[in-house]
Amino acid sequence: MAEQRVLVIEAGRTERHYWADLWRYRELFYFLAWRDLLVRYRQTAIGVAWAVLRPLLTMAVFTIVFGKLAGLPSENVPYPVLVFAALLPWQLFASAASEVGGSLVGNANMIAKVYFPRLIIPAGALIVSCVDFLISLVLLAAIMAWYGFVPDWRILALPIFVLVALAAALGAGVWIAALNVRYRDVRFVVPFAVQLGLYISPVGFSSSVVPEQWRFVYGLNPMVGVIDGFRWSILGGAAQVYWPSLLLSLVLVSIVLVTGIAYFRSTEKTFADVI
Amino acid sequence: MSAVIKVEGLSKCYFIDHRPGPAYRTLRDALANRATRVARRLARPLAGASPAADEGPSREQFWALQDVGFEVEQGERVGIVGRNGAGKSTLLKILSRITDPTKGRIHLKGRVASLLEVGTGFHPELTGRENVFLNGAILGMRRVEIARKFDEIVAFAEVERFLDTPVKRYSSGMYVRLAFAVAAHLESEILIVDEVLAVGDRQFQDKCLGRIEELSTGAGKTILLVSHNLDVIQRVCNRGLYLRQGSIAFDGPVDRALHEYVTNTTATASSRPLEQRRNRYGSQLLAASGFRIVDMHGAEQGVLQAGGDFIFVVTCRKSAAIGDLRDVNVGIELKDCRNITVWLAYSSFTRDSFSVTDDEIAVKCTVRDLNLAAGDYSVTLFLSRGEHEVLDCVHDAAMLTVAGGDYFGTGSAGLPDHCRTLTRVGWHVTSARGP
Description:
- The structure holds two protein chains of two kinds.
- By secondary structure, chain A is an all-alpha fold.
- Chain A has helices spanning about 20-25, 25-45, 45-70, 80-105, 110-115, 120-145, 160-180, 185-200, 215-220, 220-235, 245-270, 270-275, and one strand spanning about 5-10.
- The two termini of chain A are about 35 Å apart.
- The mean pLDDT of chain A is about 85.
- Chain B folds into two domains: about 65-265, P-loop containing nucleotide triphosphate hydrolases (Rossmann fold); about 280-405, Distorted Sandwich (Coagulation Factor XIII, Chain A, domain 1).
- In chain B, helix 5 runs parallel beside helix 6 (about 200-220).
- Chain B is of the alpha/beta class.
- The interface of A and B includes residues 11, 12 and 270 of A.
- Strand 1 of chain A pairs antiparallel with strand 4 (about 105-110) of chain B, so a sheet runs across the interface.
């Protein structure tokens, strides 16, 4: 009780201590992430099994459709490994973005009844997807061991691309989350967009199948850079990165993240009124 | 002693949508609207000067709070009363930083714990133990703080044996007890409480009240409390703040504030003379001239209690142009805040029609065991000859407020937001595989 903070609430004033507040509420972030994890893996007895099965089945289907039936080039790596290396970042992005996007509406009653920096909720929602990602990562290691595939030094760059994927997911997610509070039809669009994204991103195939003159434009899909980066660092020299499109992706991810957070913060104050 | 809460010129404005269609906005509509607006502007470039005009008629401003100002000293226990929609909850929401004021400023000195709902963030799948930590964190407690008080919280809630059971298996009583226990152990200098005491059984409500009193007198906490239960306010608070239509109507000692509130509610109900109302229809051969509610001893009542006995008195004046009136029926209809009729008494239902020979009569309708949930109701009066000839019909003839009371004898208030009428029934369970 020694410190007597004086708090001033004033109309239209942006929170001066917003980021400090965010830090002070970090324990709430841990607790929300922990709650989501507990609930997810407790409620569904097959929670972990699901996290294993989903990427495996997708990989099998893509390998057969794109690798065998369509006969797309495999860059001298086993096609399943090629697919799985791209499925990792895609699933991380897709599940994190939808999880984050629905997080505000999912915690509506908390928002209406308690104060805390609202950014905590989407940030906490990101964590569950990270755990699924780790499970998939172990799976990838197993598959690579099965094919006797050893990565080289490039694997050290993997964490960077994971961060980029997370930044992309958080950026897209907070946009969706904030829009979702205001416009309730957004949630119908998201699953469709995710579905579509899977096919316009180089998940089932290598982005080298895209004609050279279109490679840069293809990079307008920010996930192209991330997925290429993943393949590059996991598959070693086998997969080439088209650097201009990677850079374009990075720039786009930053823009989405910064504008997403800015939009989130500008609408944050009205969440409780409209949710 | 210095003010720990200082509120100056606080106002909050909401926009009410009057557009038809779904209650929520859709992105599709928003985009379509914007496109139309752009198209319109392109078509008539000079007319685009006032873009707000497009939104004009469909949106209406509503000032939930208007220029509210007060100061609270440390250790004061302030009870906030007022009708539904007077701005009580909005005030608490702004003080707890859940929503932003439109105008004005607030200075708060010290840590604020606000309890606008019991068990916010409780997850049914998690155990009692897990929920204590989660809920504590949501309310702003640190993990070490929760761990330190854990035993105390559990003891207060009396759920020791069920700590590792998911709360979805808890009885509603246990659930509420645990939730309140966490909140009651918050360390803060200012405690903001909204109506949460309306839950749990009588015994536990008393325990909660005791805890609040203990916190305020013992620990010198400042307390702001909103409740429809005037007894609770009287017991806990030493200062009362009466809000009316978004402004402070009275600020002072709790007894006087409650008195103001109760008498004012009666006063507004009978202030506009019914006889002078023009928004009525019917032949006016007999017209309603007054409406009041008294208890069984004849004392006028401002606020009614569910489960209580009352007499609704309708006074009527007969037109001089006519002789005796026969076969007259009187109807009293109550509408809730959504303008839905939830209660109707009509003398023809029980074949209680009567004759009018005097110039002015008082029709008394005895209501026993009032089965209305807490809230405000608008009274419609209806006079007819036979069942079809309308003599007089006045909407919003008066307002009545139901607050508190104990209809079920369990302390439960029912679910006033969900269902306006209360019904007492018997429950029995037998085997379905009967002979």
